[in-house]
Amino acid sequence: MSWLRALKETARSGLKIERQRLEPLVAIRGAAGLAVVVGAALALFGPAVAVSSAFGAFQAAIATLQRSWRPRPVLALLSGATLAVSTFLGYLTSTHIALFVALLTLWTFLGGLSWAVGPTVGIMASSNVAIMLVTVTLPGSVAAAAGHAAMIAVGGIVQALLVVLFPVRRWGAQRDALADALAAEADYARRLRHDPTVSFDPAPLMHARSAAAVTPRQARRRPAELHGTRGVAERIRPVLASLADPAVGVPADGPARDRVRELLDAAGTVLDAAALAVRHGEAVDVPPAAAAALRTPDTAAILSGPSRRAALRLIALLDDVVATARGAGAVESDHRTRQGLLRLLPDALRAVRDELRPGSPILRHALRSSAVVAAGYLLGTALPFGHGYWAPLTAVMVMRPDFSQTYGRSVARLCGTVVGVGAATAVVQAAHPGTYVSAGIAVLCAFGMYLVMRTGYAAASVFISAYVVFLLGTGGEDWAQTVPQRVLLTLLGGLLAMLAYAVYPAWETPRLHHRLADWLLAGGRYAAAVLDRYADPADTADVRQALLAARDTRIAWREALNKAWHEPVRARALSRDTAEQAGRALAQAGRVAMLIEAHLPERGAGHDAEPVPAAAALAEVLRHATEDAAEAVREYRVPDWGPVHEVVDRWGTKEAADAVLRGSAVQLLDALDALAGALAAARDDNGPQTREGSAAR
C-alpha cells in the first residue's frame, strides 16, 4: 500500500463511527461520580482543587469503561492512585524544566513499555502522563501539590464506591463474552449447513475463556448460569464440525445429509436461545420445533457410524448447555483462578523485560513516544502560545504501538478538537457561564464522552475537548486565548506523533512470515498431541494446552495481518493473496485436527478406548516435519511434507483401520500441501531470495 493510500485509509478509520451498544446507565454513573467530586471540591477547597480532583474522577471513570475482566472498582482505585502519584512527582520537578522533562521522558517510556502487560494498562499509563501535564500547573506549593494529589485519589475512590453501590449489569462483561461465544457457535452451526468445511473464528471462545478467569471470591459470588456453560460450548464446536464433514460423516447428498442439516439448524436455534438467556440473565426458552428436531427417533435410524455418534453427542451437549444456562444440572467448575494485582507484578515485570530487545514493537513504541512527548513539551514551551502542554498531551494520547491506530487517532483527535473547542467557544461567547455553570457543562461533556467512548475516537474527542475547555474555565482560564492555542498545539502534537512513526516505525509487514511460522508450529504440535492421544488413549498429554497455543498464534496472525494491510510498506515475501491462501490452509489443517479430537475416546471409556498404533508414527513425523517447516517459512523457503506423505501412503486398511483417522490424515495433508503450494507460487512470482536479502528489506 502506498503512503498516500495508507494515509487515506487510516484517516477514514479514525473518523469512523462504530455501531456499538450504548450504556447510558454506566455513563450516568460515571458523570454522577464526577459531579459529586467537583461539587464537593468547589464548595470546600475552591476551583483549582476542583479541577485536579475532576481529572482524577474523570480518568477513574474511563478506567471502569475499559475492556478488562478486572473488577471495575479495582480499576478505578488503581487509576486514581497512579494519577495521584504522577501528579505529585510531576509537581516536585515542574519548577526545573530539565528535571521535569527527564521525569516526563521516563514516565512516558515506562508507560510505553506497559503495553506489554496489556492494552488496559497501556491506556491507563498513557492517560496518566497526559493528565499529569495539566494537573502539575494547578498547585502553588508542595503542600498544595500533596492536597491536589490526595483529591485526585479521592476521585478514584468515589468512582469505585459508586460502582459497588450502584452496579450496572453485574457480571455484564462476563455474560456478554459467554453469550458471544454461544452466538458464534450458533452461527457456525448454520453456516455448516451450506458449507461443511467452513472456518470458525476462535476469538469469541478465547474471550469467553479470559472472562472465566476470576478470583476465588468472585467464583463464590458468580451467577450459576455462568458456571459450566463455556466448558460445554468448547466441546460442541468439534462435534458440529465432525457431524457436518462429508469425509468423516455422511455423504454430501441424500436423506442422511438432510437430517444433518436439520440437526445443525436446531443446534443453532438452541445455542442462540442459550446466548440470549445468558446475556440478559433470563430463563432459557428453547423453541418447540428445535427441541422436537433434536428428539426425533429418526436420527438413530438414518445415521450410522461416526455421524450417529456425533449426533448423539451433540444432542447430549446441547442438553447440558440448556441445563447449565438455567443454573441447573451437573455444574462443573468453569473458571480459571485470576491472581491479585500484587501477585501479577512478577509476571508483568517479566513481560516488560521480554520486550527489552532490539526490534520489539513495544520497545520502539516506548522510545518513540518518550522522544515525541519530550520534544513536544520543549517546543510547546518555546512557542509564544502559552499552554505548551497541549502538544505533548495530544501526542501521548494518540500514539499506539501500531501504525494505523496512531495515524487514525491523530486525524480523529484533530477533527474532534476543532469541533469540540468550536462548540465550547460558541457556548462561552453566547452565555458567559460562571464557575458552577462551567463545571456543570463540563460534567455534561464527560457524560457524552462516556456514552460514545466505544463508538469511535473522533466522537469521543469532541466531548473530551469541550470537557477540558469548560473544566479549565472553571479554574479561571482565559477562554479567548485557550481555544486557538489548543487547536494549534494539538495539530503540532498530532504531526509529531505521525512523523515519529514514519521516521522510527515498527512495521508488522516484514514480520508476517514469522507470525505464520508460529501458527504453523503451534498447529502442528496440536495435531501431534491429538494423534498421540489417538495412539494411546491413556496418554496424559495436555491436548487442551496445545489447542490454546494454536488459537493464540492464529489470533496473533490475524491481528498482524490486519495491521499489515494498513501499512505503507510492501510485503514482498507474503503478498496479500499469498497470506490469505496460507491462512486458509492452516485454518483447514486446524479444523482437521479438531475433527480427529472430536472422535477421541473419552477417558475411562473402557474397551471402547482402543489404541491406534498407526497414529503414533504419524504424530512423531508430523511433529518433526512442522518444526522443519516453520524454520523454512522463517527463511522464505517452501516446506517439505515428504516424510508425512510417506507415513500416510504406507497405511493400509489393516494398519489404519479407523476410517475417521485415515480420512482426516488425507485432509490434513491436503491442507499442508495447499500451504506449500501458496508459498511456492509466491516464491516463483518474486524470484529466488536469500535469507539475508529478504531480512535486509
Number of strands: 2
Task: Please tell me the total number of domains.
Answer: 3
Principal-axis shape equals: globular
Ranges where pLDDT stays below 50 over 5 or more residues in a row are 329-334, 653-657, 688-697
Instruction: Report Rg.
Output: 29 Å
Mean pLDDT: 85
For the biggest β-sheet, the strand order reads: 1-2
Q: Assign a percent range to the helix content.
A: over 70%
Largest sheet: 2 strands, parallel
Briefly note the structural class of the backbone. mainly alpha
Q: How much beta, percentage-wise?
A: under 5%
End-to-end separation in angstroms reads 16 Å
Number of helices: 29
Would you mind describing this structure in some detail?
The chain has helices at residues 3-14, 24-44, 47-64, 72-94, 97-113, 119-135, 142-165, 172-194, 203-211, 216-221, 229-244, 255-280, 288-295, 298-302, 305-325, 341-354, 361-382, 390-398, 403-431, 435-452, 457-474, 479-503, 512-535, 543-565, 576-598, 613-634, 642-650, 659-686, 691-696; strands at 213-214, 336-337. The chain is an all-alpha fold and 697 residues long. The chain folds into three domains: 3-169 and 360-503, no CATH class; 173-221 and 223-334, no CATH class; 510-696, Methane Monooxygenase Hydroxylase, Chain G, domain 1 (Up-down Bundle). Strands 1-2 form a two-stranded parallel sheet. Helix 4 (72-94) runs antiparallel to helix 7 and helix 24 (543-565) runs antiparallel to helix 25. The chain is globular, with a radius of gyration of 29 Å. 50% of the residues are buried.
